[in-house]
């Protein structure tokens, strides 16, 4: 478990940019954005080789203990031992995930008006976090 941020206050029109280093022997890492640890509007999980997925980004939402339907992205711009910069842009009805050379949107299934919570887990070393 990496750092946990609370009271972020991210609203539609705002962005959160995460920079860090991926472990050389990485299997997967996770970034969660939501209201708190139990209400996750976006569970962002790049998997190098985990849970039967290889080089796949799996996204989901979580309401208390209930996960939604998994969304898979096959574009995988991450490298073991490399650096990563990911920007999450909060919109009214979804979150746009900006990756190197690729972007996609994930619906705001929980209808969160504010994203207050962020955490990282797994094979990712957070170097900087900025929002505007």
From TrEMBL:
<dbReference type="Pfam" id="PF00337">
    <property type="entry name" value="Gal-bind_lectin"/>
</dbReference>
<dbReference type="GO" id="GO:0043236">
    <property type="term" value="F:laminin binding"/>
</dbReference>
<dbReference type="GO" id="GO:0030395">
    <property type="term" value="F:lactose binding"/>
</dbReference>
<protein>
    <recommendedName>
        <fullName>Galectin</fullName>
    </recommendedName>
</protein>
<keyword id="KW-0430">Lectin</keyword>
<dbReference type="InterPro" id="IPR013320">
    <property type="entry name" value="ConA-like_dom_sf"/>
</dbReference>
<dbReference type="InterPro" id="IPR001079">
    <property type="entry name" value="Galectin_CRD"/>
</dbReference>
<feature type="domain" description="Galectin">
    <location>
        <begin position="2"/>
        <end position="132"/>
    </location>
</feature>
<dbReference type="GO" id="GO:0005615">
    <property type="term" value="C:extracellular space"/>
</dbReference>
<dbReference type="InterPro" id="IPR044156">
    <property type="entry name" value="Galectin-like"/>
</dbReference>
